[in-house]
Amino acid sequence: MAKKSYKILVVDDSSIIRQAIIAILESSENLEVVGEAASGDEALAKIPKLKPDLITLDVIMPNMNGLTTLKYIMIFHPTPTVMLSSLTQEGASITFDALRYGAIDFISKPSNLENNALGVKKEEIIRKVCMAAKVRTSAIQYIRVKANENTLLVSRQGCKNIVVLGVAEGGYGALLKIVPKLTVTDSTAYMIIFYETSVHVDGFIEYLNHYSAISVQRPFNNTLLKAGVCYISSGEEYVTAHGERGNLTAHVSPAPFSMRRGSIDMLMFSVAEILGRRSIGAILSGAGSDGAEGLEEIVRVGGNAIIQSPVSCLYKSMALSALNLCEAEVVVADMEIAAEINNFLVNSAN
């Protein structure tokens, strides 16, 4: 029998959930569950003995919750960790906190196991665990951000410039390092395509608003793109910009083939066509190649291109594809991208 690739420790206070997760993971030829734990304390005791390649960790647990457990893991036993979250109102905030503290990703956990509610997520669970297990511990970082106590008035002024960012797997950490540091200007809007489900993007927008100087919103069809706003859409939508500078609107429609991934390219092509050399594009962490052709078009029309350095990506494929197709002026780690965008905006004429 071939040796399995990755060793997994499953941590959840519910024995029923643990066994369901274990059964799903063990069904993959690449995954071996080497242990289980019913509490954070038990997990911390087992990690140095089992030396897992990855940990699945429940967010809501009695005594030591998942966030506290994660902090200890990252301090004493840095290990790629995927959170299991029911994404209740409380759970969503804690889940995003966990991503800020170094978790790689999260898996939505159903509130009960009726109608094989966990089993229908089998492919997603195996895919996310296998991808996260490949992440090097050196790429895991604690993200320092401060809550924004100021209530900003959203500009009523249409934008003259657009910065487009494309991101997929590994995007939570990258965006947490970028969006809170973006400059609020009277001429520029930011548009982000993030390959996550719409419900998760909505929760993340609310979370980012708490930590960002800029207003973070969803774009809606045929609405004016306002300066000083960061618009985030999921990969379940096709989003393009239309009109002229100062009166640009977003066209938003459901993506009929969202699994094929083309939303980033579409948005970048539309922005490059309208804004030419004033367009700015950035490709961040993610699997696949979406965004490479769109970024190449931005470069072709004289715009500015930024690519997250692959060594800082949790998932490198998108960045590598962009690097292979076009010459970006800037290739930097995610924590430096906001500063580079801000510099481009300062140096560019309105």
Q: Would you mind describing this structure in some detail?
A:
It contains eleven helices and 15 strands. The chain is of the alpha/beta class and 350 residues long. It folds into two domains: 6-139, 3-Layer(aba) Sandwich (Rossmann fold); 161-347, Methylesterase CheB, C-terminal domain (Rossmann fold), CATH 3.40.50. The strands form three sheets. It has a seven-stranded parallel beta sheet with strand order 8-10-7-6-13-14-15, with helices on both faces.
N to C succession of SSEs = EHEHEHEHEHEHEHEEEEEHEHEHEH
Q: And the CATH topology of the largest domain?
A: Rossmann fold
Helix percentage range: 25-40%
Radius of gyration in whole Å, from Cα?
A: 21 Å
Portion in beta strands: 15-25%
Main sheet properties: 7 strands, parallel
> What is the count of structural domains?
2
Shape: elongated
Tell me the CATH superfamily of the largest domain: Methylesterase CheB, C-terminal domain
Structural class: alpha/beta
Widest sheet, order of strands = 8-10-7-6-13-14-15
According to CATH, what is the class of the largest domain? Alpha Beta
Overall pLDDT metric: 88
Distance between the termini: 64 Å
CATH architectural category of the largest domain: 3-Layer(aba) Sandwich
- DSSP summary: helix tally: 11
Q: Uncertain runs with pLDDT below 50, 5 residues or more?
A: none
Count of beta strands: 15
